[in-house]
Amino acid sequence: MKQLATAALVVLALGGCQSSAPQSSEIAPVCDVACQQAQFDTLANTFIDELLALQPEWALYAGDYQYAQQLTIPDAAYRQRQRDFAAQWRARFDDLGELDEARQIDLALMRNQLDKMLWYLDSYQGWQWNPANYNVAGPFGRLLSESWADEDTKLRTVLARMEGVPAYYRAGREALSNPTQEHLQLAVLQNQGALSVFDDSLLGRVAESNLDAQEQALFEKRYWRSRQAIQSYISFLERSLTEFDPQTGRDFRLGEALYEQKFALDIQAEMTAAQLYDKAKADQAQARKQMVGITKQLWPKYFRGTAMPRDPQQAVRAMVDHLSQSHVSRDNFVAEVKRQIPELEQFVVQQDLITLDPDKPLVVRETPPYMRGIAGASISAPGPFEKQGNTYYNVTPLDGLSDEAAESYLREYNDWMLQILNIHEAIPGHYTQLVYANLSPSLVKSLLANGAMIEGWAVYAERMMLEQGYGDFEPELWLMYWKWNLRVISNTLLDYGVHVKGMSQEEAMDLLVNQAYQQEQEAKEKWRRVTLSQVQLTSYYAGFREILDLREQLKSQQKEAFELKAFHEQFLSYGNAPVGMIRQLML
Asked: Where is the signal peptide (predicted)?
């Protein structure tokens, strides 16, 4: 990053600024458009440098390990440093001269990041009521598992970082005030998982390393202090849970005003949350209609001799329930995910849908314990500073579920639905998009990721793959696709309904199980998720609709000249920018 800033300064010094008159000590040189843009590039790189220095954990996840020894202590002084940073950079981003469209988008992203920083600190205030914010495991786990340095360097970095663990958890405890019951429960679960990072195997690695005796002794001392700090925090959370009063305790629902503000900052869509909700209601009816049509087509195949129910939704439920019985065993779930990845790669290559980089590894693994509790599958990707790092497809095993819950989960991710999940998470969904994001020439667009673009691409990939013939247009797969798409739509209806309209758990289960045909276990997990997050569940549908609409508009404009692969690669070349901003660059 420092090299990038230096390079921009060199460009500036070698003639980016030109004068319309002979230079003298009395006449300042005139900075033309190229000069102004070079100055902006330097400023943007400086912003990224300082942002990552302020937030070392973000730098670490982006693949920049220069701050890896620093553990941020989340106290009041640190929150003030963030406020000061945002105020200073807001002023520096005023009056920047003439910028091209790509740089205007970078500027908009950086300003939005500053607005988000202040809003999260002073309006949202999750640092005050979400105890799950305080968990040291993720960065430590990354430092120990990634191949960013030799073993001794990794361990010395962990040694330095562990020094701050007790102060970290003290600051978290002091910050908390009236936390929600749901986030207390999550924090207990995930911090119990954090202990798996600080286990006996870590001390074993130290014993086998080249650290000297003094370093090893200090490591063991800090290791036990770190474990003690985590266990003490868990005890504090458990006491808080026993003392929680549902009548007076904080409600997890965000409320309309904060929800709309969060939606505007996080999603950056070209509509409000309320408008997206109305659009989702219309698309819900369309998806259900598609499922009725396919059910009529399949009914004689699976229910020969049995009259189709007069209620079409009852017929759809019967068909979905029947097909959902075809699924892998619980013990083979993770293995089946691994098996399908090469098949997806082969189809994408054969159909020439997008260029895949064979040198970027995808590693399917069981979800680390400290990451469990929210989603059953996810992607952990390397950042733009670590482009050769592993991308992990995290799949949560089912060994922690009862037989009944596991069967419900497997019916949801049946033989057809599991394929759609893998398209979404892996190829050509999240994994493919995030590889392209790291190739973007703009670090701003890569680092300041827009969740709706990222999730929207993964949802778009599902539709696109089936449109291009994946699964040989099998009606069973299309039925399950529309069920999945209905889930995406329902995510928006659920999230807005719960946090703004006060939807109850009973009403939510009706939406998910009866109107979207989801299995009981999936619906329960989605309810849990909506109690722990806000707005993020709308990102899937918001991004998908914008990407699909953009593609259809370009097809209409370009007619026979439209090429799907070219559209995909150009769209992904802009990093993780919001779809609306990418739209400006492509139209």
From this structure: 1-21
Rounded to an integer, the average pLDDT of 10-24 is 37
Residue 189 CB coordination number (10 Å) = 17
Q: What is the pLDDT of residues 433-465, one digit of tens each?
A: 999 998 888 899 989 989 999 999 999 999 999
CA atoms lying within 13 Å on the CB side of residue 92: 15
Same domain for 540 and 404: yes
Task: Assess whether 334 and 316 both reside in one domain.
Answer: yes
Evaluate whether residue 408 is within a structural domain.
yes
| Helix 181-194 with 137-145: angle, nearest 10 deg | 30
The reply to whether 259 falls in a domain is: no
pTM: 0.86
For the chain, the helix, strand and coil percentages under 3-state DSSP, each to the nearest 5? 65, 5, 30
Q: Measure the CA–CA gap between 194 and 433, rounded to whole angstroms.
A: 29
Residue 267 CB coordination number (10 Å): 28
Are 441 and 411 in the same domain? Answer: yes
Question: How many structural domains are present in the chain?
Answer: 3
Which residue in this structure is represented by tokens 């949202």?
124
**In Å, how far are 294, 451, 533 from 374, measured between CA atoms?**
32, 16, 9
Using a 10 angstrom Cβ sphere, with 0-12 exposed, 13-18 middle and 19 or more buried, the burial of residue 516 is: buried
- Inter-residue contact 361 to 390 (CB < 8 Å): yes
Q: Which of 36-45, 102-111, 361-370 has the lowest mean pLDDT?
A: 361-370
Task: Decide: helix, strand or coil at residue 205.
Answer: helix
Are residue 231 and residue 105 in the same domain, yes or no?
no
Q: Which helix (H) or strand (E) holds 362?
A: strand 362-366
CB 419 within 8 A of CB 471: yes
Amino acid at 554: L
Band of pLDDT at residue 108, cut at 50, 70 and 90:
very high
On whether residue 258 sits in a domain, the answer given is no
pLDDT tens digits for range 325-353: 999 999 999 999 999 999 999 999 999 99
Q: Give the residue from 51, 10, 18, 53 showing the smallest Cα distance to 34.
A: 18
Domain end call among 124, 157, 179: 124
Has residue 405 been placed in a domain? yes
Domain that holds residue 506: 266-586
